[in-house]
Amino acid sequence: MKGKLADPVWALGAMSGTSLDGVDAALVLTDGVTISEFGASGYRGYSDAEQAVLRAALGKWPGDDLEDAAAVVLEAHIATLRGFDADVVGFHGQTLAHEPQGRGTHQLGDGAALAEALGRTVVWDFRSTDVELGGQGAPLAPFYHWACAKWIGADAPVAFLNLGGVGNLTWVDPASDKPDAPGALLAFDTGPANAPINDLMMERRGLAYDKGGALAAQGQVVDGALELFLEEGYFRKMPPKSLDRNDFSLMLDLVRELDDADAAATMTAMAAAAVMQGMEHCPVVPQRLLVTGGGRHNPVMMAMLGSALDCAVQPVEAVGLDGDMLEAQAFAYLAVRVMRGLPTSAPETTGVPAPVGGGRISRV
Ligand SMILES: Nc1ncnc2c1ncn2[C@@H]1O[C@H](COP(=O)(O)OP(=O)(O)OP(=O)(O)O)[C@@H](O)[C@H]1O
Ligand SMILES: CC(=O)N[C@H]1[C@@H]2OC[C@@H](O2)[C@@H](O)[C@@H]1O[C@H](C)C(=O)O
Prior knowledge:
Blueprint: E1 9-16, E2 22-30, E3 35-45, H1 48-57, H2 67-81, E4 88-99, E5 104-108, H3 111-118, E6 122-124, H4 128-132, H5 142-151, E7 158-163, E8 166-172, E9 185-192, H6 195-205, H7 214-217, H8 223-230, H9 251-254, H10 260-279, E10 288-292, H11 299-308, E11 312-315, H12 326-339, H13 347-350, E12 360-362
Bound molecules: adenosine-5'-triphosphate and the ligand CC(=O)N[C@H]1[C@@H]2OC[C@@H](O2)[C@@H](O)[C@@H]1O[C@H](C)C(=O)O.
The ligand CC(=O)N[C@H]1[C@@H]2OC[C@@H](O2)[C@@H](O)[C@@H]1O[C@H](C)C(=O)O binds near residues 17, 18, 98 and 166.
């Protein structure tokens, strides 16, 4: 890497999330502690054919036949990243399976091959070490949320909520001097967010998602189904805790008898209710809940959250951040931390016994 150890460097993060929509890429100038500047970003959607290959690979583990899916992930990342200039690349890979207390966690993607193709140092396989040491391996964005809280100049506890396929929440005490300081953070996956709504839309309407919450807005929330959902043991577990995309796939059964609009409204309420349950774990009520990820574009979900919580609920754009790129930026930031030997997770974020720096480095 260029520069002295403590100099900020341009890091390029690449994230392809559980909704399998495509690859986000974003540049951040950082020393792995402080955000100095944001750079350009980009996005390349997976084609229908690529998405079908990845969907068929969900639930698979290293050693399974993954040749086609591996090629899709590698080619999509090369195409997305090759136009950028950066000192280091943080490559998340495509999560295919996540069983932290079982077989481990699996992010498909060969960082060494990507490094060779791009001619740049690539940091990858961010989650395995944490899981091997007894952590959940997720969520990992919380250390970056800490840097974001500092960047926005927060002077009171603040929470970040990612509404992706799965939801995850990070509570930050901005008075802390580093993200792995005891009490600086509390983070966990809240529950299913958009993934089950997408599955419902595909099953009932042949659509990828409920754009603008339009279908949910026409329906009524059915309380009985919502209560059954909240009886799920996950919500009683203390954090840290994490989920696989399909851990709640039985949710579709809870709305099976409902018409399309009521089913969409009820599932949207389920995603919001999971967040409300999660907020109870915050050490103190945050001043504001800053929402990132695709769910912030769903006004029905945002209104449900806003009316149920005691704090302001706003998209991260309200504080000058980019909610479409925050996770890609997170893996840029984490790549620099790995290069510098700094931890990327802590007991309060993944349940790992002590702060740990995961990630493999492939140099060119
Ligand atoms: N305009 C919109 N209206 C409603 N929902 C939307 C809108 N835009 C995006 N979404 C939802 O957000 C999802 C994508 O969110 P995002 O890109 O944050 O997920 P991801 O990064 O793949 O998931 P994860 O963070 O779980 O890995 C879409 O699949 C869709 O359900
Ligand atoms: C195993 C895995 O890939 N988990 C993702 C997923 O998507 C959201 C939630 O579940 C979160 O735990 C995580 O991603 C974000 C980027 C994280 O690690 O913070």
